[in-house]
Amino acid sequence: MQRLVEFSAGLVFGLGLILSGMADPARVLGFLDLTGLWDPSLAFVMGGAILVGFFAFRIARKRAHTLLGGALHLPGATAIDKRLVLGSLIFGAGWGLAGFCPGPAIVSLGAGHPKAVVFVVAMLAGMLLSPWTSSMLRCFQQALPRRGQD
Q1: pTM of the prediction?
Q2: Does a structural domain hold residue 150?
C-alpha cells in the first residue's frame, strides 16, 4: 500500500508540473528574466504550493503518524548557516542556467527532452560528490589556523 501511495503522489506531482507548464524550462527561464518578457506563471504555481504546504505542515506538526500509520519525521533544523546559503546559491544558479529543478527535470527526462538528460546526470553527479566534498571541506577547515590562535 505504501508504494502505491508513493507512486500516486509522484504521479500527481508530475501531472501538476506538466499541466502548469513548469516542466518547460522556457517558462521557468521566462519567470527569471526580469528585464525581458517576464512570465509570472511560476509565481502563481509557487504561491499555490506555499499555501498548500503551509496548511499541510501545520496539520502534520500535530500528528505523530502518517495517514498510513508510519512514523512522521518532520525537519527540525531552523538555523540559516553557510551550508544552507551555499547550497541555495548553487541550486539557484543551476536553476537559472538550465531552467530545471529536480522534479521538473525528471518529468522532462521521462518526456525525452535532451537537455533534461544533461541536467539529471549533472544532478546525480552532484548528489554522489556531495559527501566527498563535505568531508574535504571539513578537512580543509580543520587544517586552517583558528582566529586568535596564530
Answers
A1: 0.69
A2: no
